[in-house]
Each structure stands twice: as structure tokens, then as C-alpha cells.
Write a structure and sequence with these properties.
This protein is of the alpha+beta class. Helices cover 38% and strands 20% of the residues.
Length: 65
């Protein structure tokens, strides 16, 4: 018996990453203060951010780091 979850997964597998990705990305720089990171994470209610140096992705930081 196919469940609602099975149907959802089937639909998701037919999508491209570009169909569901965010384009308005919030980032932080490697020279930014940890206090800035904490503020952004709390205000946006998110758990992590990509770390970008100019236009290059240099890492990812999360509340678990």
C-alpha cells in the first residue's frame, strides 16, 4: 500500500535541485564575529550558514560546530 510519504518522495525525486533551492542566500564571512553569527542564526531561526570569502565558498558553520 502506497502511503502519502511514498507519494511525496516520488514527487521529490522528479525535481531538480534548482527547483527547490533558495536563491536569496544568507552568508557570513570568515572575518565576521561569532556574535554576528549568533545574532543571524537567532533572528532568522536557522541552524547554519555558508561561509563566503568574497565570492568563494570556504566552509559551512552551524550551531553544532
Amino acid at each position: 500500500m502506497e502511503t502519502k510519504f511514498d507519494k511525496t518522495v516520488e514527487i521529490l525525486f522528479e525535481l531538480k535541485v534548482a527547483d527547490v533551492m533558495r536563491k536569496d542566500i544568507i552568508t557570513i564571512g570568515p572575518g565576521d564575529m561569532m556574535s554576528d553569527l549568533k545574532k543571524i542564526l537567532q533572528e532568522r531561526r536557522i541552524s547554519g550558514l555558508p561561509v563566503v570569502d568574497e565570492t568563494r565558498l570556504v566552509g559551512v558553520i552551524s550551531i553544532e560546530d
